[in-house]
Design brief:
The chain is an alpha/beta fold and about 290 residues long. It has 2 domains: about 1-205, Alpha-Beta Complex (Spore Coat Polysaccharide Biosynthesis Protein SpsA, Chain A), CATH 3.90.550; about 205-290, no CATH class. It contains 10 helices and 8 strands. The protein has helices spanning about 15-25, 40-50, 65-75, 95-100, 125-145, 175-185, 205-225, 235, 240-245, 250-275, and strands at about 1-5, 30-35, 55-60, 80-85, 90, 110-115, 155-160, 190-200. β2, α2 (about 40-50) and β3 (about 55-60) form a beta-alpha-beta unit. The longest helix is centred in the C-terminal third of the chain and has 27 residues, at about 250-275.
């Protein structure tokens, strides 16, 4: 059985499209779609779909964050394979079948999908989202080929049931935590580049900083837990040439240089928050409105 889990919060404008995209995939006869959200606006939209399709189930979580919501859903989901996605993204047609097929290899514990930006490449922030997702795609392909560990994207990934039973509720990067946990149990992570999930990225620099601080804060948290370097400014700098090669014009080349300085600025902010202001990592998680 397949359990598709959609976690959402105040995403009544996009949850319908997310559900429809899931149902447009061939999941066979034995599946369930679980929509978890704390707000009635999102649940009311999802409820209209559940009236037409009994395989769609609703769970009202307590609004204590995505990790707490997932912990609740893990206890309710009946599938042997869990597919996790969000209410503000939508999957491509036939994307889920490609992920499910990977589990024919018993050594595979989790499968990552490929995020695709829906933002305009003609604008700077949209361009950044395109090249960064392209770099992530290349790196995951190399990681699979060389049998190295990588992290699945929380926008869409699948894993075997039971490998992750509970996530610490203070976890900032739940996808990173789950990927690491699956890997630590001796399972391999695989990548399905044909399994697409369409994502709207930030349209303002403020929201871009908020989103990146949240993800970087999550990786710093995992680093503190594991005592291993997961992501750093130095590691990111090593990939600068990959990004330069993706520029198609002088304007895009200029935007690449702006991105480099934006990342420097980002890491300075993170250093100040963690080492000087001593902010709790949970305070770094802020909702990004322009992606909704």
């Amino acid at each position: 059985m397949i359990s598709v889990i959609i976690t959402a919060y105040k995403e009544h404008k996009t949850i319908g499209r997310a559900i429809e995209a899931i149902l447009d995939n061939d999941l066979g006869k034995d599946y369930e779609v679980i929509v978890s959200a704390p707000d009635e606006e999102t649940l009311s939209v999802a409820r209209e779909y559940s009236k037409k399709n009994k395989k769609i189930k609703l769970l009202k979580d307590e609004g204590k964050g995505k990790p707490a919501a997932l912990n609740m859903v893990f206890k309710k989901a009946r599938g042997d394979i869990l597919i996790l996605t969000d209410g503000d993204v939508y999957v491509g047609k036939d994307s889920l079948a490609g992920m499910i097929e990977k589990f024919s290899d018993e050594k595979i514990g989790a499968v990552a999908a490929r995020p695709v930006s829906t933002s305009s490449r003609k604008k700077m922030l949209g361009f950044w989202s395109h090249i960064l997702t392209e770099v992530a795609d290349k790196r995951r392909k190399i990681a699979v080929k060389t049998k190295r560990r990588f992290f699945c994207s929380g926008y869409l990934f699948a894993m075997k049931r039971g490998l992750v039973k509970e996530i610490p509720t203070e976890t900032l990067s739940d996808d990173g935590f789950m990927s690491l946990l699956v890997y630590s149990k001796g399972y391999r992570l695989d990548y399905s580049p044909g399994s697409l999930v369409y994502v709207s990225y930030p349209t303002t620099f403020r929201d871009w900083v908020l989103q990146k601080k949240r993800s970087a804060g999550g990786y710093n948290q995992i680093k503190a837990w594991t005592k291993k370097e997961i992501r750093s400014f130095g590691k990111e700098s090593m990939g600068a040439f990959q990004v330069l090669n993706l520029a198609r014009s002088l304007k895009e080349l200029f935007w690449v240089f702006v991105l480099f300085f934006a990342r420097v600025y980002l890491w300075i902010l993170i250093f100040i928050d963690i080492n000087i202001k001593k902010k709790k990592l949970s305070k770094i998680w802020l909702r990004v409105e322009s992606t909704k």
